[in-house]
Amino acid sequence: xxxxxxxxxxxxxxxxxxxxxxxxxxxxxxxxxxxxxxxxxxxxxxxxxxxxxxxxxxxxxxxxxxxxxxxxxxxxxxxxxxxxxxxxxxxxxxxxxxxxxxxxxxxxxxxxxxxxxxxxxxxxxxxxxxxxxxxxxxxxxxxxxxxxxxxxxxxxxxxxxxxxxxxxxxxxxxxxxxxxxxxxxxxxxxxxxxxxxxxxxxxxxxxxxxxxxxxxxxxxxxxxxxxxxxxxxxxxxxxxxxxxxxxxxxxxxxxxxxxxxxxxxxxxxxxxxxxxxxxxxxxxxx
Amino acid sequence: xxxxxxxxxxxxxxxxxxxxxxxxxxxxxxxxxxxxxxxxxxxxxxxxxxxxxxxxxxxxxxxxxxxxxxxxxxxxxxxxxxxxxxxxxxxxxxxxxxxxxxxxxxxxxxxxxxxxxxxxxxxxxxxxxxxxxxxxxxxxxxxxxxxxxxxxxxxxxxxxxxxxxxxxxxxxxxxxxxxxxxxxxxxxxxxxxxxxxxxxxxxxxxxxxxxxxxxxxxxxxxxxxxxxxxxxxxxxxxxxxxxxxxxxxxxxxxxxxxxxxxxxxxxxxxxxxxxxxxxxxxxxxx
Amino acid sequence: xxxxxxxxxxxxxxxxxxxxxxxxxxxxxxxxxxxxxxxxxxxxxxxxxxxxxxxxxxxxxxxxxxxxxxxxxxxxxxxxxxxxxxxxxxxxxxxxxxxxxxxxxxxxxxxxxxxxxxxxxxxxxxxxxxxxxxxxxxxxxxxxxxxxxxxxxxxxxxxxxxxxxxxxxxxxxxxxxxxxxxxxxxxxxxxxxxxxxxxxxxxxxxxxxxxxxxxxxxxxxxxxxxxxxxxxxxxxxxxxxxxxxxxxxxxxxxxxxxxxxxxxxxxxxxxxxxxxxxxxxxxxxx
Amino acid sequence: xxxxxxxxxxxxxxxxxxxxxxxxxxxxxxxxxxxxxxxxxxxxxxxxxxxxxxxxxxxxxxxxxxxxxxxxxxxxxxxxxxxxxxxxxxxxxxxxxxxxxxxxxxxxxxxxxxxxxxxxxxxxxxxxxxxxxxxxxxxxxxxxxxxxxxxxxxxxxxxxxxxxxxxxxxxxxxxxxxxxxxxxxxxxxxxxxxxxxxxxxxxxxxxxxxxxxxxxxxxxxxxxxxxxxxxxxxxxxxxxxxxxxxxxxxxxxxxxxxxxxxxxxxxxxxxxxxxxxxxxxxxxxx
Lengths: 286, 286, 286, 286
Description:
Chain A has seven helices and nine strands.
């Protein structure tokens, strides 16, 4: 059977990426002392040279299927390792490609403790990425990231009201607060391990307060006070995350890429507020 | 050309509704002293008897297209009138149908004034529905609704903190507050007019505070105080809307259907809180 | 601490439902010979009498948390059993409520075999619902449903082209085909078991063809032929599902509720086509 | 009142971008012989130096509000001009910023003619972007883009079936076809005009066939034949767009950025297929 994809092309332009999006599979991931099953969604791509008409997309699905099947027998250490394995496999399966890109997202659960000591299973998002570069050094770069929902209380409205009223009471002043979604993605260089749970802890402690799925009244009161004692703009959240990253990952090299984005679903506006920094550890240390 | 849709069917079950969703068109609507263009999305359906294989879906598009074209020349009084005209047209075009259903949604803008007197163009959602019933009396029932984004401040956390601290200061006590989305849909019987702008006003004044797209600091302070002086559960918002409805629409008959739903995107939780009432004006008056 | 929620209310209207949406947790479900972990999303509600200001929303989270925790130790037979347990627990925890409603959705995976015999892990959606009715008989009604992505090929365009060209070849005639999403929800009465996998099989075989995540060329050709040999309107898909349901579930009582909805993301239109039937097994048997 | 945003910061990291997302407003845009009202959604950002605590977000809303208000009196030539004006205004209003970024999206409607000559109002998406660079040359770069929904028919399955059956009939062979969404964004340098309608025409003619909201049977048959006579991979669609761009915009300079992305919602898979090229006109001409 002739290879339709391998035929010469009329408009011989190379393509930056060709692949599939929205492939969802259960994967098994090792956690301290256990294995967890995550429902992971994959987007995978390779580049395409000018002379090749089409990319063999079924090979992408084979690459994903193989690592997913393997994870059932032997849980992967992390989603970023899974992404890296697929990125490598894509270069093997697409001989014409020089680059590959893999992105995996999944919901992820951690048991947390409320201020009053109650246990609550909380939802977080995981994001893992890997970029393959044939003949590059390293051949595959991988990143691991987390998406955390928390709370921000606005420092500006709080100060406005304090000034207007001259309030000097023992309690923090009222302000608007809201749901905040902050994402942190960190490159994980060869030979270095980065724990997603540590990234969750960094982000969660950088907001005005964490959120919990179950709160009885004393816990609710504590959280509201905590948030008002730590009023934060989205800008503050991003900088706090950057500061904690620099301290926590002193052992990682300068070239490591970092991306932090914080979005507040403003309670006094119909729109959202966003702050973002895309950089390297080296730039942050300068 | 034989009519494939009209053929006898193997599995002769009638169908509750058959139609198209996600048809988007610009429509022209009359407002006091002007006409506005809205980008409206239509879902339209008819029922199908057991003996008819398929519904002629292109007739649904003709029904929509005709009223949209007409609105360019002669702006419609309201989206619910447009929905009613389409519901009637669907019964005309589908001789085999006994019921029709039309739902139209659109973004809608009103100029509002902030507490400090600044003008701000605010976004709301419109929802119009019409149900056709061949031979019914009336043949078409229509409903008009609004979707409003505002703010709720939690009464419970406020009281918890007040009790724990014994606070008795002049300012309201801190609490969590968040983005709230409340929808109100009201039947609009023949011969009675219901203004969407009035529904917006009812919903917006039933929340802890309205939201605005643009707020300088004194306005922001005022809104935050307003929200904390009117702490509301989602339950309170729904009941406040119901109470205002009963007072405002004393002239409407008992049979008029009412639906109110309020959802708070909780700032201290990762989930949302929801309250809803589906009823009639008569039941509310009892 | 006074119970803010239990206070008398200014606008004493009862509420149809009050609760929380978007609570996501991992749950463990028994499958033949194994247990699978699903990432499930819960919406849970109770009604609220006129004299009660607020519903104690944290009790909803306790009800969810308890069954989720229990499932880790003892996997539940199905999501609908989990929903029913929560619906019962909600009535226990909210003494003022007379009704409860629970909806759970999750992605779910089954190993399927392509026409050429290749194994492929395919994604489906599960939907489980339970309605509690204090003092009712039964006190809790539960439903189990599936969401299946497949393919429909249009019978009408195929016939149009055949007529225009007088084509009488051995191969089916060209037509437009597209991604179709069909949902089937069936009540599962006390003492009767309904297997989600059977519902998946019923829906999947009612479309023009199933879809697979991985297809090499011979499989792709087979599927395309299969779809063109079974051209189906959305109306046909719904009726085919209804017909198979009646045959498969002869043992279930007449009162059992049935809901089937099929949506084709039309390839020749920008909108979707939808057909739906909401009924009971008794009506279908008449 | 002290400027909270202007205060010194604890973690003095600069931020890549700070701003607001999801601001929706009606804007008036000039079209040949008329003005149309679009419901536009804005995301706007500036960068933030290390020494400035917060960005004054209300200034972003003032920048948007001003150009939107002006457009009512004097419709803008295009969304990209609106974006450029806002990008310039952001640099004026945020003295500490060196960069600004604006993204505007809107639904947009064009009257098209079906193969059989029927008029149909079709929906497209507009995307306009502008990047401000204080002291840069030019100070603001703007891009205009379109999002088009059309149809692709798979060349590979068609050939597989033709080979297996030895079919040599006059009609094209059956294959799978599906909804395709292709986006083209082109930089529009100072002194050069790019018409969004031309971009729509380029993309629409690069797919296997266009789609229409209303099709009677002869039109439906024609479109299905057209699609099967032009089977296209997503790779083919992107290259066809690139080829037409190079021919159509010979007058534009080499540095002009180009981005094309085509996504097919596969009818035989549950996932999507995607191809993309990000480049410059100069690279395409090489």
